[in-house]
Amino acid sequence: MKLLADENMPFVQELFGDWAEIVTCPGREISPEQLRDVDVLLVRSITRVDETLLAEAERLSFVGTATIGCDHIDTELLARRGIVFASAPGCNKVAVGDYVLAALLRVAAHKGWSLKDKTLGVVGVGNTGAEVAERARALGMTVLLCDPPRALTDTTEFVDFEQALSADIVSFHVPLIRGGEHPTWHLLDQAAIAGLNTEQVLINACRGDVWDNQALLARQQGASPLTLVMDVWEHEPEVLAPLVPHALLATPHIAGYSLEGKARGTFALYRALCEQRQVSIHLTPEQLLPPSPIGAVHLKEAPDQALVARLVRLVYDIEQDDAAFRLALGQPGFFDHLRKQYPQRRELGSVQLSGMTGSGEALGFKV
Ligand SMILES: NC(=O)c1ccc[n+]([C@@H]2O[C@H](COP(=O)([O-])OP(=O)(O)OC[C@H]3O[C@@H](n4cnc5c(N)ncnc54)[C@H](O)[C@@H]3O)[C@@H](O)[C@H]2O)c1
Ligand SMILES: O=C(O)[C@H](O)[C@H](O)COP(=O)(O)O
Which residues belong to the active site? Predict the structure, then answer.
């Protein structure tokens, strides 16, 4: 069996090495010719799997993406051609929760805000949105949930998009959907942007195309700019460079880039392929991970916002990611390079808190 994987997918050798000939390649360079004799294709979000890519892939029987988002995959084509497809729902939701928590704390420090007096609108309340909502509640924030598709069948209390946009901070966690009843392409469009007041904060850790970046730039260049946290950008790996100085935090699509999240992503594909090939599973995602570099922290007092900020920074310093982004901006290929060279990042849950732990568990720590 020949397996072709994106070179940025960790643990491929450990999980598939025993039963496949493995070839790796940069995700943006996978070509139709390369797929001629490939049985299994494992990609990340940067490889568009479509008619053109699969034109010569006559042996292909399995495609997996080690990501939550699937907007780069023509799933109808795969179904039509009888190719088994697997993705990794939820794999990096905890990492996105860590990222947004770190962002909220940075925003609060910047604005001198006590987060327990603030509201957070969560747009898209699936795996990542729910994770973010839980962290925000643990900080004492009032959380408004907005998820029109879920609201159709779910009894949870939801608000509409307009109400979500009235929150002090609005965090977006929707899949990129271009048509249908609930499209998300440019969900934050010029009209929505115009309705916001200058005190408000927007966070995008889902897909760049969900925000109209040009309209946002126009707003930021005017008299009443917003506070922005941007992990994702329209037209990645290109970035609308003039927008970057207008963002409080700017990062290269790494919200989900914890080591645990990546391990769970590759493992989800391993599990799916084991099922397809009727091979038994002989590992767990945890077995792939090295020990946590921090281990344990004992608290002498229940953590308030300032202590939570220090604890989070100990494990994940979002400002380092932001600084690296600004330093590299404009260099050829900087976006992909930062992602490829991304330092090993562990989740808050890799740290065991003891003592006066307060809401430590809901914030993502192990208690
Ligand atoms: N930046 C990153 O590193 C990163 C990491 C993980 C996921 N993502 C992106 O975030 C997206 C969401 O991830 P998830 O795990 O929460 O997905 P999910 O499928 O679990 O949840 C998405 C939720 O969005 C809702 N939704 C759909 N259309 C909507 C609309 N128009 N308005 C409001 N809500 C709507 C759905 O009903 C669903 O509940 C992924 O599709 C992916 O594109 C980015
Ligand atoms: O959809 C996802 O899971 C994330 O956006 C994922 O972290 C993207 O990372 P990539 O596949 O681009 O390396």
Answer: 207, 236, 253
